[in-house]
Amino acid sequence: MDIDGVLCTTAYWAIHRFIMLKLNIGPNDSRAQLTSPDEFGDLFDPIPVKNLSAVFLATGFKIVISSTWRTAGLEVMQTMWRLRGLPGEVIAVTPHLHIARGKEIAAWLRLNEVESYVILDDNTDYLPEQRPYFIRTDSQYELTYQDAERCIKILNSFTH
Fold this sequence. Notes:
The chain is mainly α. 38% of the residues lie in helices and 8% in strands. Helix 3 (74-83) links the parallel strand 1 and strand 2 (90-93).
């Protein structure tokens, strides 16, 4: 799973900035801390997070981070996931091989036993054999309800 483009939305941050300006809330105002970045970086839009929760409830997925956020390391990603109360469990990060992300995911899949998978990303640098498992999110709205339904369908198709 990618993060920017899946859980971090441009629409969410545009609304956040607009509200901050309209309410004249500065960066040191205690109200700004409700939506300001934490020690891990940008907070995630609650709508895509809710959609990801729906996928988790329907499938019980485990998460492998393929995002550039993975360079912070697995333990940091797991801590962030836990402290932010996000759905699912981060079990791994893909290797950072400085090649197309699809090839990095393929390398991880070769070394790990996986029953099913889905790729969530707003970029398209994936291998042809990964296309049936790839859901391209919209960079403005990220993981939509329709995307979540497709995730559930793909993940549940492996078990039926």
